[in-house]
Amino acid sequence: MPMLDVYVPEGALRSAAEAALLGRLTDILMTWEGFDPADPVMRSVSWAFLHRPAAVFVAGVPATAPRYKVVATVPEGQLDERARAAVIAEVTEAVLDAEEGRWPREAGRIWVFPTEVPDGYWGGNGRPTHLAEILARVTDRESARALADKRIAASRAGRTVLPG
Q: Which residue among 74, 96, 112, 153 is least crowded, i.e. fewest CB within 10 A of its CB?
């Protein structure tokens, strides 16, 4: 059940490549969340918002090649450390592939931010939606609750607090 915010500068990609990229990014995120990308119910709640920055600047000067930003937002507990790393790598490759060789193949031009929304702060249908409710779409309620509790606990245990 991902929400994607994909920032693509105007003219950076052919329109067909851009449309294919948005589908591929959705598939990548759904797969790493543990959902079947072919499931029409889960696809119906997997949205991608395409943003068009008028200009991107690097060190205060217009960039000479496109820069991309992908914010992949999921409910808390959906992406462990391994999944986050895979999402970053696969999204980066997908964007580079979508360029179809029009620009130098430089991963440093793409930033990917897998972001988890704390449980109870994901809102849909006018109310908060918990991870257990989302998981109940693909399994029974009891299993969904147990899996949600396990994933959320692991997510919270894996957070590093920076000194400060």
A: 153
